[in-house]
Design a protein that fits this description.
530 residues, 27% strand
Length: 530
């Protein structure tokens, strides 16, 4: 026991030494919020941002953070750096903690790393239009469940700033404990996204597979002025003009005919109806013939029919008509005039450019600009560094001790509720399902999978049904990949827009649709048609 304690103290001391050693040179900015943010961070004075920021302790700790204190509000606050940070040279690490103390059904918890004020913004007027270089962090609402990473990059040819969204980003953890989010920008154009120190996504800024739209535009684009010639024939097959309908082809023959060979089963009760009046039913005392009409007893299945092969009028069953051929149409032949599917010619893209490295805009401030339906979101230990080891040290010394305490408390609460095993199982299932939703080859079904997970989280009794549904989806995609298919699944995807003003609304503006179930009550009384 003594040896273990000594080892823990040694590790803590070593981490602290590393932190102190690296902090002076490599920690560009750090705020632990142990002191009040007032006077250091500036809250927006714009009319839309009524949310009140508070300097508050994290639940169960003496550790302070920056708290979102009210529900259904817009929030905006900004902290300017002493000097702008260039992202063009060396490694840059962006890291911060969030704790969703009341969960997160619809809202954002991300940070914006802003360009210098020369780009056109003021601290007291900070809003969703303020120009940023990078947006990073959790966002969750309805089908949206992702840890954003958006790079706003200037096209050197057109001068336009375009938002480039990380494709297939990791999902947001679904619990209420502290989590630390880390984005590492490497000089070799690599991006790594970590959650709680574990790598969840690796990407390359210049890969079209990793960012939408790609950072480098295509070399050529379809000519918008090119028009399809009027005589262009896109039909690969045409009806054979020389084909003639056979003389014995009967288009009027029915698809089914009575089976003349069928024989009525022995014991068939022709005179017995399939249903009879319920002999035990009685007319209700409050029945009013003038108001309700003549009372009629409800029907029940005829008990005599249960032992007989059938009741009522017997009719021959139908069978497929061997003479049926349907409407005749001529066979298809190759079209001699077929030219293929027309496409406009390609022309050089006037917006095309080449770069060895992204032309990152410098970071001059850190802003939080969100619209959330939940309160209790706590931001803490915001860090910008030039060294991964610095970020790792802060995770070990500032985040991990809190996280372990919170996890133990969460486990104890589950045990006290008497549902530890079930809750633990469901939590593991949901964690796995969120990882499944992040698999690239399931991207077309991600919305449906996340929707199923959301329903299961709100109604845990649906967990097994959700598992079955997701397995069916996976098998469907698997068999399509192996055996192919005539059509790809039609899943409409709205492209990510390149306007800053639409980002913060990605979660807050989405209204959750309530599910309504209609139940049909059995009729209390029956009327006789008059």
């Amino acid at each position: 026991m003594m040896g273990r304690s000594a080892l823990l103290l040694l590790l803590a001391f070593a981490s602290l030494q590393l932190l102190c050693f690296a902090a002076d040179d490599d920690a560009v900015f750090y705020d632990s919020f142990e002191e009040s943010f007032e006077g250091r961070w500036i809250a927006s004075e714009k009319d839309d941002y009524k949310g009140v920021w508070k300097h508050s302790k994290s639940e169960g700790h003496d550790d302070y953070g920056l708290l979102v204190s009210e529900k259904a509000r817009k929030y905006a606050i900004v902290k300017e750096l002493d000097e702008p940070l260039s992202l063009k040279d060396g490694t840059a690490v962006l890291q911060f903690e969030t704790r969703l103390q009341n969960g997160l059904e619809c809202g954002g918890a991300y940070l914006k790393y802003l360009r210098p004020q020369e780009a056109g913004w003021k601290a007291k007027e900070f809003d969703n239009e303020s120009p940023y270089s990078i947006m990073f962090g959790p966002d969750k609402c309805g089908a949206t469940n992702k840890v954003h990473f958006i790079l706003k990059h200037k096209n050197p040819k057109s001068g336009e700033y375009v938002e480039h969204h990380l494709k297939y980003p990791p999902s947001v953890p679904s619990d209420k404990v502290s989590h630390v989010y880390t984005a590492i920008l490497k000089p070799d154009n690599e991006l790594r996204i970590l959650i709680d120190g574990e790598e969840k996504k690796k990407a390359n800024f210049f890969s079209a597979e990793d960012f939408e739209p790609p950072l480098i535009p295509p070399k050529t684009i379809p000519d918008p002025d090119d028009k399809k010639p009027e005589d262009w024939d896109e039909m690969a097959k045409i009806p054979d003009p020389s084909a003639v309908k056979p003389d014995d082809w009967d288009e009027d023959a029915p698809m089914e005919v009575e089976d003349e060979e069928a024989v009525k089963p022995e014991g068939w009760l022709d005179d017995e109806p399939e249903e009879i009046d319920d002999p035990e039913a009685t007319k209700p005392e409050d029945w009013d013939d003038e108001e309700d009409g003549e009372w009629e007893a409800p029907k029940i299945d005829n008990p005599k029919c249960e032992t007989a092969p059938g009741c009522g009028e017997w009719k021959r069953p139908m069978k497929r008509n061997p003479a049926y051929k349907g409407k005749w149409s001529p066979p298809l032949i190759d079209n001699p005039n077929y030219k293929g599917i027309w496409k406009p010619r390609e022309i050089p893209n006037p917006s095309y450019f080449e770069l060895d490295k992204p032309d990152f805009e410098p970071i001059a401030a850190i802003g939080i600009e969100i619209w959330t339906m939940q309160d209790g979101i706590l931001f803490d230990n915001i860090l910008i560094a030039k060294n991964e080891k610095v970020a790792e040290s802060y995770r070990e010394t500032a985040w991990k001790p809190k996280f372990e305490v919170e996890k133990e408390k969460q486990k104890a609460e589950e045990e006290a509720s008497g549902s530890d095993e079930l809750a633990g199982f469901q939590k593991k299932v949901f964690d796995v399902l969120y990882k499944v939703a992040d698999i690239p080859f399931l991207s077309e079904y991600k919305v449906q999978i996340l929707d199923l997970i959301e329903k299961a989280e709100k109604q845990p009794n649906l967990t097994i049904g959700v598992l079955v549904s997701i397995v069916v989806i996976i098998l469907t995609v698997f068999f399509k990949l192996i055996f192919g298919g005539k059509k790809h699944p039609r899943v409409e995807k709205k492209p990510e827009v390149a306007e800053t003003s639409n980002d913060q609304g990605s979660s807050g503006e989405k209204a959750e649709e309530e599910e309504k179930e209609e139940t049909a009550a059995a009729p209390r009384r029956r009327r006789r048609d008059t």
